[in-house]
Amino acid sequence: AEKVSKQEHLYKVLVIGEFGVGKTSIIRRYTEGSFSPNYKLTIGVDFALKTLEWDETTKVNLQLWDIAGHERFGHMTRVYYKYAPATFDTVAKWLSDINSKVMLADQSPVPVMLLANKCDLEESYVDSLRLEKYCQEHGLIGWFPTSAKNDSNIDNAMKCLVKTFIISD
Ligand code: GDP
Ligand code: MG
């Protein structure tokens, strides 16, 4: 039998955002398929791996970098995490942070996708039109309402991200 050699890609994904929004939980859900309601600080930087058999000829290795945001200031109580903090206003800050530190080899900005996590919470509210417009205006790939708890949209968001990587490779 003939052996088809697969094309293999390695991509790095940086998961950034405010403290407590669910970065570690999203990575854990995506790579291990599990969720824990207990908050644990992420110390420094941690990374997890995920391999996708993208299609017959393509294998994708993802390195998901879990960045500890401002977690050294982690003195808030767990109760805080039951509520979806209004963190949209901090997106601009994270975006300029990433763009000031990282760029692609051709000096263009890195592809960015926005996740509105904890969409399972009753009090979570996202203004879809506003997010859509924001993504267009700032050149983001797009956005997804996600829940690490209920496993909603995380695979979809990652698929969309990987598709962008593959197309621009
Ligand atoms: P990080 O600081 O951004 O890494 O946030 P964590 O992943 O540590 O999550 C902070 C807290 O929010 C933890 O108690 C998680 O269990 C909780 N959490 C994370 N994602 C979700 C989610 O989608 N839904 C709900 N209800 N809670 C979540
Ligand atoms: Mg974390």
UniProtKB/TrEMBL annotation:
Q: Where in the cell is it found?
A: Membrane
Membrane-protein topology: Lipid-anchor
Q: What is the lineage of its organism?
A: Eukaryota, Metazoa, Spiralia, Lophotrochozoa, Mollusca
Shown segment, full-protein numbering: 6 to 174 of 272
- Record's protein name: Ras-related protein Rab
**One of the protein's GO biological processes:** phagosome-lysosome fusion
Keyword Kinase, does the record have it?
Answer: no
Swiss-Prot/TrEMBL keywords: GTP-binding, Lipoprotein, Membrane, Nucleotide-binding, Prenylation
Query: What function does the entry list?
Result: The small GTPases Rab are key regulators in vesicle trafficking.
